[in-house]
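Researcher: Let's walk through a ligand-bound prediction step by step. First, I give you the protein sequence. Second, the SMILES string for fe (ii) ion. Third, you return the three-dimensional complex as structure tokens. Ready?
Model: Ready.
Researcher: Here are steps one and two:
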Amino acid sequence: MFSFFSKKRNLPVTLVTDMHSHLIPGIDDGVKTPQEAFDVIDQLLELGYQKFVTTPHIMTDYFGNTAESVRIAHERFLPLLREKNYTMPFDCAAEYYLDDTVIAAVARKEPLLTFGGKYLLFETNVISEPLQLKEFIFSITLQGYKPVLAHPERYQYMTLEKAEDLRNRGVLLQLNLLSLIGHYGPPIQRLAEKLIAKGWVDLLGTDCHNLDHTRLLRAVTRTSAYRKAMELPLLNNHLLA
Ligand SMILES: [Fe+2]
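Model: Step three, the predicted complex:
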């Protein structure tokens, strides 16, 4: 019988839950139509995923999303999925861009979209470390959230020292699978591999936006970095259990 655990080493051979994707049609730079969402989901199911937490961008300068509008879009999309006989869990959180809007929402103690009850996925600008980064982490942690930094390997300002400092501040690190095949460039691939070697990866995400991404994801599982990452105590397969 097919098992998600290899007999030899009792390690998961595939990820059950993906917790980073852009699969609600038409609300960010992810899939544009319900049909595109279904096509992408079909591919992800074929890759072995059984549960999804999709994470639309909440980024004030680019998309008009708010926690409420994302929640409504998710509620509208779910019946379309069920009509097509998709039965897998399909939850929704968000990928918060660290900007003044989210900082103000935190200051007002507005409830933010999370997965697993408390994990808050956020990203920053790719070039320089935001001045408010540490304060933001402190504030959300104080409110009971567990910060998850999306794709740390993609930030030009990121170093192993900074990654270690973030972990010491309670930040979980979520690596993008496509970084492992050099999709975002060689320096990003190298940092991703170093983070895996250090064991500083808590979650793996597809960050899937479209069918190009699902095609590329097929190559990831053949990399040695992926195999090494799968030996880490990843949270993926404990989410939405
Ligand atoms: Fe993303």
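Researcher: And what stands out?
Model: Residues 1-12 have pLDDT under 50 and may be disordered. The pocket of fe (ii) ion is lined by residues 20, 22, 95, 150, 207 (CB under 6 Å).
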